[in-house]
Design a protein that fits this description.
- The protein has 133 residues and is α+β, with helices and mostly antiparallel strands.
- The chain folds into 2 domains: 34 residues; 83 residues, Sandwich (mini-chromosome maintenance (MCM) complex, domain 2).
- It is elongated.
- 17% of the residues are buried.
């Protein structure tokens, strides 16, 4: 066996190892990190304004900053921004979301829709008792 054949064989082994590693990483990501969320959280200007269960179909109008309006549709375990009166419509063009950590953002209205594992409803009981400086 000459040097050329050895190099070709090593190249093929390297390519197979890289492909196998990529498949293993992809499978691990799908199994461990791509979990379906349970709640759709709505934030306007950085503040949580609502949280809805993702398994209950609902259509909600969200009032963003500067009088902007967005329409959120929760259906079939997914959340989707179906309408917005912002000029670029990027939030409407984004695909629907269903997994924890996924978001839909409308920058002109400062609206962020995210999928979470737990409800982010804020009550007075969640407020801190004291602040230390």
């Amino acid at each position: 066996m000459n040097l050329q054949d050895t190099k070709k064989r090593n190249d093929i082994i390297l390519i197979i190892c890289v492909v196998v590693a990529a498949v293993i990483c992809f499978a691990a990501y799908k199994l461990y990190f791509n979990k379906s969320g349970k709640f759709v959280t709505v934030k306007v200007d950085g503040k949580v304004t609502a949280s809805y269960p993702i398994d209950v179909d609902k259509t909600v109008t969200i009032n963003g900053v500067n009088g902007g309006k967005n329409v959120l549709k929760i259906s079939g375990g997914t959340a989707d921004m179906t309408e917005a009166d912002c000029p670029d419509q990027t939030c409407v063009k984004k695909h629907s979301i269903r997994y924890e950590g996924e978001t839909i953002v409308c920058l002109p209205h400062k609206v962020v829709i995210s999928i979470d594992h737990s409800s982010n409803d804020k009550t007075d009981d969640d407020a801190p008792d004291a602040v230390v400086k």
